[in-house]
Amino acid sequence: MAIALFLGMWLSRIFVLGPLGFLLGFVIAVSQSVGEEIPSPELVVRGLLWLWVALVYSIALTLVLNLLFLPDTPQTAAHPPETEARVGPACLFVPDAFTNPAHAHFALKVTFAAMFCYIVYEAIDWTGIHTAFITCTFIALESTEATLYKGTLRFVGCLIGGALALFSIVFLMPHMETIASLVVLVACAAAIAGWVAAGSERISYAGLQLAFAFFYSVFQGYAPDTDLDNVRNRVVGILLV
Hints:
Elements: H1 2-14, H2 18-35, H3 41-69, H4 102-123, H5 131-138, H6 144-172, H7 179-197, H8 204-218, H9 229-240
Helix pairs in contact: 1-2, 1-4, 4-5, 5-9, 6-8, 6-9, 7-8, 8-9
């Protein structure tokens, strides 16, 4: 798990397409961290396959909506590209990919932080706060100040989204009888989160966390649920980091 996470974070720094390297390491490490909680290997495979279905569906839907409602402005002939794109293995990596030790130091720092959180919540038998493991990878930036700021946005967004979910579960969902009412509720929460995410770069990350905390707490099954553990565990997991 540590090796996969280290390689993923290292590749995220040396690849030109950094998110691709991050995704490879992150998926492997997280699937290993939660796989032991599921009793049947078949359920693990099913869960991972359905996760890919959800990812592909949401990505495809986002692309279609962007193409329909936010088309790219075509480039004019008056502004041709200055240089031709390079072709070959060298273009896959940043110029200092194998000479700058800061890339390995960054990956090692994130790996130590994530594995420390993993050992802590496994030792106290509280796997519900596994968000701590994920948070270490998502808020990691080059400087400590930037990492703390992104962590603060994640925490604030989670608190607001959790508060909205708590209000909805306690006061609204007991009176909902149809899927239409749930759709309206989700649309309102998504609109608020989208409005924040579309704002300045200084606060946009909080909008994403607001939406994720709300959806994670409200969508707990195929029927209304009054379990508030997800809200509590997510906040505690972020605070652990």
